[in-house]
Structures are given as structure tokens and as C-alpha cells.
Design a protein that fits this description.
3-stranded antiparallel beta sheet, 18% strand, 231 residues, 4-stranded mixed beta sheet, 39% helix, alpha+beta
């Protein structure tokens, strides 16, 4: 027996482990389901050859009615909390919504074990708006590949909440927009990114006021540089 498109989307979201999802994410899932016509060994009840915005709005409406999708309390409308999965950390949530940002500066220093200070805010770095848009267009091309018929329809923005909220799950957020994006690595999950140790040392010198101040940086360099010299 075939399953509905909304049920197929539920399975796809669960498989991706996305506790937070944008309308762009959901549109991408729907397009991929239209290509495969099946998921988890079950055929999907799809009659149309191509998806349209009605499939998206109907899926959001059905999953919202079932209590599976709710507007996220921190990010607002068009970014949803998928209630069937446990919530993510603030770092992961930030990187889900802005796939080009990463944990940096004093927050990165703490995670890398370079400082004994506990940052009051979660420090993130993201590309400047112009570079961000270029990256978003490149991501759209990668996501939809050789299927131009699945281009994002008007009314759906790529990660519409580019501007981070002041708090995520109660944790204050401080975001730096920069033309210069450093080297990053994955942090504890497939989605959250952090500046590498080498990049973090560079950031200490480039923006010392975001890394605890120059006296603190000098202490960190004295205590840690030999251990991380290669990086």
C-alpha cells in the first residue's frame, strides 16, 4: 500500500535527524521524493510528474495538524521544530539554519581546551551578506544538481532567517560577519562546524577583543603554542 507524501516526508526528516527544518529543507526533501517515488521500501502516492508549492504548503499543513511541525520558538515562522526528534545543541541549531556559519573565537577556544574561561555568549562567524548569497546559490545548484525543473520556486527563500536571533535555547548569540572565512572542521555532529585549532590561533591575533583580550591571548600562546605548533 502506498503512503502519503506527508508520511514520506516524516520518514525522510527522521532519517536525516533534523530536529529543526526550514521550508527550503522541506522543499528539497519533497523534490527528492518526487525523483525516487519511494522511501524505506514503500512507494509514495504521487500523481504529479513535478512538485509545486501546493505540495509544500499541504505537507506543512498536514504535519502541523499532526503536531509534528511547529514554528520554532527561537527562529520564528518558516523555520520549524520537528517534534519527533530530540532537540539539538545551540551550535547545531545555528549551523542548521545558517549552513555557512561556524563556532569561532572564545567559544572555539573553550571547545578546543585552549582557555579556562567560559564565554557568556556563543560566538559565531558567518560570511558577509554578499558572500553568503553567493554560497547559498552554489548550495542550491549542488542540492538540485542536473534537475533545473526543481529550482526553488518564488516565495521560498534559502535559509530565510540568515540573521541569527539574539538567543538560541536561552544561550546568547554573538555573530561576526566577515569577508574572510577561516578553516573549519566538524564539531560533534555532521552539521555543526568550528574553526580549526590553527585558525583559532590566527583569530586570536586578528580579533583579540573577541578572544578574551590580548593579555589572555598571550597567556594562551605561552601555555599552548608548543603543543599545537604544527596546526
Amino acid at each position: 500500500m502506498k503512503i502519503s507524501l506527508s508520511d514520506a516526508c516524516t520518514i525522510a526528516i527522521e532519517q536525516s535527524n533534523m530536529a529543526i527544518i526550514t521550508d527550503y529543507d522541506l522543499w528539497l526533501i519533497i523534490c527528492r521524493l518526487f525523483v525516487s517515488r519511494q522511501i524505506a521500501g514503500r512507494m509514495i502516492n504521487i500523481r504529479n510528474k513535478l512538485p509545486d508549492t501546493q505540495h509544500l504548503s499541504r505537507t506543512i499543513r498536514v504535519l502541523s495538524k499532526e503536531g509534528l511541525l511547529k514554528p520554532d520558538t527561537d527562529f520564528g515562522t518558516r523555520i520549524f521544530r520537528f517534534t519527533n526528534l530530540p532537540d539539538h545543541t545551540p551550535e547545531e541549531l545555528a549551523c542548521y539554519v545558517d549552513p555557512f556559519c561556524y563556532v569561532s573565537h572564545l567559544s572555539a577556544m573553550e571547545i578546543h581546551g585552549l582557555t579556562d574561561r567560559t564565554p557568556k555568549t556563543l560566538m559565531l562567524t558567518t560570511p558577509s551578506r554578499q558572500i553568503w548569497r553567493i554560497n547559498a546559490k552554489e548550495k542550491e545548484r549542488r542540492d538540485f544538481g542536473e534537475r533545473p525543473q526543481y529550482v526553488v520556486p518564488e516565495g521560498i527563500s534559502i535559509f530565510p532567517h540568515y540573521k541569527m536571533p539574539k538567543k538560541i535555547r536561552g544561550r546568547p548569540i554573538d555573530t561576526l560577519q566577515s569577508k574572510f572565512i577561516g578553516d573549519t572542521e566538524i564539531l560533534r555532529s555532521p552539521v555543526a562546524a568550528i574553526s580549526t585549532i590553527g585558525q583559532t590561533f590566527v583569530d586570536m591575533l586578528a580579533t583579540p577583543h573577541l578572544c578574551g583580550g590580548m593579555p589572555h591571548i598571550m597567556d594562551v600562546w605561552d601555555n599552548e603554542i608548543e603543543v599545537h605548533l604544527d596546526a
